Amino acid sequence: MKKINTISIANDHAGTQYKFEIVKLLESRGIKVLNFGTDTEESMDYPDTIHLAAAAVDTQKADLGIVLCGSGNGAQLTANKHKNVRAALCWNNELVALARLHNDANILSIPARFVSLQQALGFVEIFISTEFEGGRHQKRVEKINL
Questions:
Q1: Residue 69 annotated as catalytic
Q2: Residues 6+ apart with CB under 8 A from 112
Q3: pTM more than 0.85
Q4: 6-142, what's its fold?
């Protein structure tokens, strides 16, 4: 299994508390975290932080990324504007596993207002422990970028 050294993370006001717990989890696994998210629950514009985390993955300063916003949609859409990013919006364990296995997702987008903290932490565990399957999926992933 490929070692994950660094993960970038970003959030808006809806994901702040989850982010703190995710950072603790990742650091307890010996993973360095690049925290681009807000540390408050004061309303802010999610693209301001999400672009920073996605850029770190795009330029390989981070192995993977995690982004959080209320629905997860805005964070995922923003992250996917970066050329080498494949961000997946996931709300259950199976979607997280398939995003890594079949799509080689390198950013996990979590809908903080629609999943529990325990679910979100479980998603992170699956995300960091599941590797891309390759094979028949490789050519499909190669066709994603324009």
A1: yes
A2: 11, 14, 15, 18, 68, 69, 70, 72, 120
A3: yes
A4: Ribose 5-phosphate Isomerase B; Chain: A, (3.40.1400)
